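[recover] target loaded
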């Protein structure tokens, strides 16, 4: 289900911009449902003009703080100028695109995603055996999804075994013969209505197809549709349970009626799956199917100089997921200078640190022959001193693959 796709389901809207979240490069054809009074083409439009300054600024700030490749930034209660309704949004980077998915606001229960997740996680505390955990997880996820059938597939070496099931109507369907066509990747995937039409995505000329593997609204592949129709179901949700690249389990919830879980509920279930994975790792042997990224190069050790603690923390987590190692985070020029005796391969320097700039740190790094990369919300427009003209600059919102590539290139240029 994670293959590239150029269509979404009917439950929302998609906008893709350049990686600085400025100009629209792709959009779903139904975007006129939200913006019926937009007079010009959507392609090439400025995101700020479309969403309004307040919401576009909020999204850019989110991306600066929360840009891990496998975890989109989520925001609720978005309102746009001249547009009726309230929207929830999920934002993530996808290659050269910043992808924004919009859905009608989720008022499922008034609870936040953390509240919902905590209520689910608490129900796992008294369980110790894999089969018990699977049965309880199937029941909890099925109830949360309001699914007629839910089953928990535990992955054991070469096979998948149903260890828990929750059903409200009739006999459960047979599990899929192969997981490869159904594995959703690292995020929950929901198909709201197997019979609903797909909404095409329009793109600027010469762009590569959008890799929709991270897109929650993406259209489903035909193997999944055929399996659901054969089993007599209209909707489905697939929740992966993974840990450190290992496929541990898959929770499948099925419905007889069209149903698409809102963004808040999906976020809660993904948090629940993370806790579930940790619980399973305590009781499962270590011989499960491996689902790991391609082999990484030698880890890159990084010094981060960034004065905004939340941004730095999220950046460090995202770099860790990308295979890098953050040795220290510094928020001032003084603390950064004190850290230069630490061992690190390269430094990432936010140009503005409160009321000062990072140039004294850059000068000392240059004197020691240590590689570094500047970071700034001004991107390539940053006015660097003449001594540092030509030094690499990464812009905000941060894009992790570009940061890692820039730091690695800076390191290699010094060797």
């Amino acid at each position: 289900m994670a293959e590239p796709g150029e269509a979404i389901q009917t439950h929302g809207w998609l906008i893709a911009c350049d990686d600085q979240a400025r100009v629209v490069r792709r959009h779903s054809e139904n975007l006129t449902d939200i913006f019926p009074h937009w007079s010009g083409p959507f392609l090439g439009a400025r995101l700020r003009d479309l969403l309004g300054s307040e919401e576009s600024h909020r999204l850019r700030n989110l991306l600066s703080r929360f840009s891990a490749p496998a975890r989109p930034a989520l925001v609720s209660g978005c309102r746009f100028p001249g547009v009726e309704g309230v929207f929830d949004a999920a934002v993530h980077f996808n290659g050269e695109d910043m992808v924004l998915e919009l859905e009608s606001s989720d008022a499922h229960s008034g609870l936040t995603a953390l509240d919902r997740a905590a209520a689910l996680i608490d129900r796992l505390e008294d369980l110790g055996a894999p089969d018990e955990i699977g049965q309880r997880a199937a029941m909890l996820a099925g109830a949360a999804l309001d699914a007629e059938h839910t089953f928990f597939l535990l992955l054991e070496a070469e096979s998948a075994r149903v260890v828990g099931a929750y059903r409200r109507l009739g006999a459960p369907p047979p599990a899929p013969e192969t997981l490869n066509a159904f594995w959703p990747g690292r995020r929950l995937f929901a198909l709201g209505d197997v019979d609903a039409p797909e909404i095409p995505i329009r793109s600027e000329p010469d762009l590569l197809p959008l890799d929709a593997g991270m897109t929650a609204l993406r259209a489903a592949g035909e193997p999944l549709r055929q399996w659901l129709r054969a089993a007599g179901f209209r909707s489905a949700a697939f929740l992966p349970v993974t840990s450190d690249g290992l496929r541990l389990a898959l929770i499948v919830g099925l419905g007889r009626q069209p149903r698409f879980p809102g963004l808040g509920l999906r976020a809660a279930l993904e948090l629940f799956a993370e806790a579930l994975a940790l619980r399973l790792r305590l009781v499962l042997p270590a011989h499960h199917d491996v689902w790991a990224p391609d082999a990484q190069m030698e880890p890159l050790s990084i010094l981060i100089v960034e004065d905004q603690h939340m941004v730095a923390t999220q950046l460090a987590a995202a770099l860790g997921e990308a295979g890098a190692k953050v040795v220290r985070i510094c928020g001032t020029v003084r603390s950064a200078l004190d850290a230069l005796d630490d061992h690190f391969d390269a430094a990432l320097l936010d140009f503005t640190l409160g009321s000062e700039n990072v140039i004294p740190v850059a000068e000392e790094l240059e004197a020691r022959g240590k590689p570094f990369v500047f970071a700034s919300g001004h991107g390539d427009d940053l006015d660097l001193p003449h001594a540092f003209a030509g030094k690499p600059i990464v812009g905000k919102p941060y894009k992790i693959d570009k940061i890692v590539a820039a730091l690695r290139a800076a390191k290699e240029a010094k060797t």
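[recover] notes: The first strand starts at residue 7 and ends at 8.
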